[in-house]
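Section 5.1 Outputs to date
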Amino acid sequence: MLSFQVVNDDGALLPCAINAACAALVDAGIPLKHLAVAICCCLAESGYVILDPNKLEEQKMKAFVYLVFPNSILSVLPGASLQVGDEPMEHGLITSVTHGVMSVDDYLQCLERGRAASAKLSGFLRRSLQPQVSK
């Protein structure tokens, strides 16, 4: 069981907790099939998208979505690959939590931007957690 203590909430709290939980499990040496990468994507009234908003930005937005993607297996185990049907695993989505109202097109735009950002987060996780995975 993981227990979290929120010292400060500057926005995107759920994605922060998910990313911290994955890092903590790896650091503790808990075997995991996959890692997860979480991100918050906000939609303004004007239609522009903000990734990883602070609390004030999050409160001013028309809607926001928390997206959790599988961390690319390539980022954890170089040279490995995993297919689910005809799609690579990193094209998948673990979960999505929305707040507010957004069109399907806006949701798909958030999904696309979130997936692109999660690829960069996957690289960061690989570099940060590589010493832990090697143990």
